[in-house]
């Protein structure tokens, strides 16, 4: 009887391990998830002839063409806020080392002025 009482913890431990082993094996096989997806995200900005953003577009207003074939767009998420904008910072690096003529520099200056005039107030340039 003394031997049986001294083996009791070992027997209980062995029993617990044997009972838990199938549960662990079942949990491990249930944790495996395989996913195959072909998801491509596109961020587009649509503007009118004057450069103003076009609002209120729906998924039907767009076509996705891949390798010459039209693909169905499964997800379409327009901007939530009508006035949502993203800040933009632009750095201009100009070559004024002497390799450009005065006429080329003047054309560059005029083009930059037009570009900067069309920037929104929240954008910065250097």
Could you characterize the architecture of this molecule?
With 126 residues, this protein is mainly alpha-helical. It has a domain at 59-125. It is built from two helices and four strands, in the order H-E-E-E-H-E. The chain has a two-stranded antiparallel sheet. Strands 3-4 form a two-stranded parallel ribbon. The longest helix has 29 residues, at 2-30. The model is unreliable at 1-5 (pLDDT under 50).
Task: Give a topology summary.
Blueprint: H1 2-30, E1 64-66, E2 69-71, E3 89-90, H2 102-117, E4 124-125
Parallel strand pairs: 3-4
Antiparallel strand pairs: 1-2
Brief overview:
This protein has 126 residues and is mainly α.
- Give me the side-by-side strand order of the main sheet: 1-2
Secondary structural class: mainly alpha
Major sheet details: 2 strands, antiparallel
Beta fraction: 5-15%
Shape: elongated
Cα-based radius of gyration, to the nearest Å: 33 Å
Number of strands: 4
Question: Which stretches of 5+ consecutive residues score pLDDT under 50?
Answer: 1-5
Mean pLDDT: 74
Order of helices and strands: HEEEHE
Task: List key phrases describing it.
36% helix, 8% strand, 126 residues, mainly alpha, two-stranded parallel sheet, two-stranded antiparallel sheet, 4 strands, elongated, disordered N terminus
């Amino acid at each position: 009887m003394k031997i049986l009482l001294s083996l009791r913890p070992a027997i209980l431990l062995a029993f617990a391990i044997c009972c838990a082993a199938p549960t662990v094996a079942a949990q491990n096989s249930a944790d495996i998830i395989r996913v195959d997806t072909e998801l491509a995200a596109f961020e587009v900005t649509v503007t009118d002839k004057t450069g103003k953003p076009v609002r209120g577009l729906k998924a039907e207003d767009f076509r996705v063409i891949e390798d010459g074939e039209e693909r169905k767009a499964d997800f379409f998420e327009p901007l939530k806020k009508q006035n949502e904008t993203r800040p933009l910072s632009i750095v201009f690096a100009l070559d004024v080392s002497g390799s450009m003529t005065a006429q080329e520099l003047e054309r560059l200056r005029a083009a930059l002025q037009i570009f900067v005039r069309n920037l929104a107030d929240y954008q910065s340039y250097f």
